Model the fold of this input.
Amino acid sequence: MMNRHKAGLIIVHPEEQKWNNVWKVFRFPNLTLPTLAALMPQDEWDIEIQDELVGPLCFERDYDLVLITVTTSVSAKSYEVARRFRRTGAKVVLGGIHPSVLPEESILHADAVVVGEAELTLAHVLDDFKRGKLEKFYRTASMVNRWDQLLPRWDLLDPKGYPFRASLTATRGCNYRCSFCSIHLALGAGQYGYRKKSPAEVARILQDADSEFVMFWDDDLLSEPRYTEQLCEAVKPLRKKWMSQMSATYVARHPSLLKSLAESGCTAMFMGLESISSESLKSVNKQNTVKMYEELIPRIHEVGIDVHAGFVVGFDHDDVDSFERTVEWGNRMGLCGAIWRILTPYPGTQLFKEFQASGRLVTTDWTYYSGEDVVFRPRNMTVEQLYWGHKWAKRQFYSFKSIGSRGLRRSIRPSDLLNTLGAGLGYRAMFHLGSDKLPVDVYRDRGHLPPPPRVVPFRFPYPPQNEYKQVLLDRLADFLPFP
Done:
């Protein structure tokens, strides 16, 4: 009888993001670990996925092998998680964006590090583990051309933790070269490359997905419009609802795609608008313009697709008045929702190299590289102004007045109003914006210091929780606009 091994696939999350009673509104599963789990021989491995966003990590599972996917802001906590699992006798392998950029740092806390896309090296890692001869580093010599040949192991995800478990990618890579973006650093060992899966193959996977709603985690589903058109035709008969990330540039250049997207089941798209300053967009190699945004968004709304935007604050052309201008613009455009982040020079990016060379980095404590803290010296405002201005913008954008204003401006059909109000209240809860007031008025008290650095102890096991209280909060989260 073949000797079976037990593997734990781990996703670490910081404490401040573990809002179980509100993340239910938007939570989608990480795709990396279900994809890797599908490639592990089921006749040799018993596999568990632990997502700390869903619940506390358990270190008493007697794993033989632990795989941890790591982003920069959770790297310190991931290293502590690795230490705890190694103490139980498990071998630990780290992978993801951060270990791909800083493998020498990561290997100090693990038995092995995977650089680049793990599908190309996983079989090698598993074979070396069984022989008791793990190498320190596993690097990909090329990029993955075919992926998800086996259905991702969605069945290993806690069904109570995610409203929708089905997620996949039809394409990989991005044709943009934004100087602050780190996504490409884990794809093909940092090489750029846009790859796509045949529409028929995508449709086959979707047909097997036991979910009416699907999340495409593509970095840009529209990089090749002809392919996108073929994909829409392939998935249209399945009558699935789906959303994805899409480039405003490609949507604007190919407006005929909007009808095809809507008819295929696309209900929402996330677009990284980043800024409404043309100078800021140019400074990070964005090809977009604000005029293009203003012409494009109403056309997207006309076909019934919601727009969720990504805004970045703190570019060199931003000042303290940029926050108010951006909030007013977003309300006027009737955006369904928006993610607000402080400009963050992630290690390995061009922006990090520029800020490091010019001495503008404030810290390289990766815990603060979350998009919620200021880790560099802005050009046209102080660190304090950027910190509080970011919080002011989020609170203003998700005030009840702003949510209602966007809903009324957007409304072409009743569902538009309901979607905008529902998303707005969901974001408000997700960001813990239960009050419309800040302790600081960024436009009057501009010198107010941000709170002192938070203590991140990463202590395990977790503090005891009242299970009955948590169940009640989870139930109420579906009805309450904020906690």
Summary: The domain at 166-430 is CATH 3.80.30.20 (pyruvate-formate lyase- activating enzyme).
